[in-house]
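FW: tagging you since you asked about this chain on Friday. Here's the raw sequence from the shared folder, copied in full. Didn't touch anything.
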Amino acid sequence: MKKELEIQYTEDIGSTPAAVDRFAGVLYINPSIFPKLTDFQKKFIIAHEEGHYYLDTSDEFKADEYAFNKLAGTEFQSLKQAVNCLPQVLDVKNITLKPRFVALYKLACKWDYIKNNNQKALEQLEWLQKYGDLDFWKFGLLQIDSDSDGDTYYKQQQANALFLQQIQTEKVTEQESKKSGYTMLIFVAIVFALGFIFYKKL
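HL: got it, structure written out here
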């Protein structure tokens, strides 16, 4: 069994709020960045680094899952806060942001369906399974509301449906535009032909 993590404060870890040395068992916290985070973000980041250490892995997805499992259901809007931690803390240029964000969102949907029997969460999982993740990400940050009991309610399905409807509308508009262009070409050709015939008669 691994020893408990030792905490040290240092700015030598760069622009990250926290980091862990899995081999030395040391959790480094950046005193210039970490205090600016929300309480939940601090909990998630520490749990994430603990995941790296206790699971003995460099895998960011496994560390995220460890943090999610530790914090899900522990406080109001915990699922929303857990999923939104990544885009709120990580640089938008971070190439791992999108896949990690989507993976956490799937965990939140699965947890909400199993624990709360939230059918909308199940619908969202099925939608992602059927259509993939790209369209989902185009909406930006997670769109989740919470009711008075703290259970999550998912609006993403509606947003995705609207997006697909907009895509279809754009396709129709594009087709109509092409038809209009063809009609204009035919009209010009007819006018030119009639003008040529009229000129020949003169």
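FW: Residues 139-157, 160-164 have pLDDT under 50 and may be disordered.
HL: agreed, and The two ends are 104 Å apart (CA to CA).
FW: great, closing this out.
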